[in-house]
Write a structure and sequence with these properties.
Arc Repressor Mutant, subunit A, two-stranded antiparallel ribbon, rod-shaped
Length: about 130
Amino acid sequence: MDLKKVPRGEINGIPAVNKFKIAMIELFKGYPVYRYYGIFESYFGHLPGQEVVNILEKDNLIDVIRKKGEQPLYRLTGDGINMAISMINLEYAEEISVYNKSMRKFTIWIIILTIITSLVGLIDLLKDLR
């Protein structure tokens, strides 16, 4: 995907961001006792998911609990919790922006109708003055 073609502010145009947001919110839902296995691999595929896990572990967003002979488990760190909350706020903001677009159209229609009504009233007033 060419990131230069994604319109500014349109984070939904990047599929990896959506997958990351879903995974982080899922991890946050079970914090602090719930530990996930394979959540990033299931969203991103096995090899890309492993790269994502390595990046998140390096950036201190998740702890990877590795036990000999078992699958690794993922758990949010303090920074990961902040990131998950930011992802929740992003999701909320995206929902609100859809609402704001319809409210903006409604407001424009109200302004147009107010101007038309004012003009009709002004024309009626001018007729009475003649």
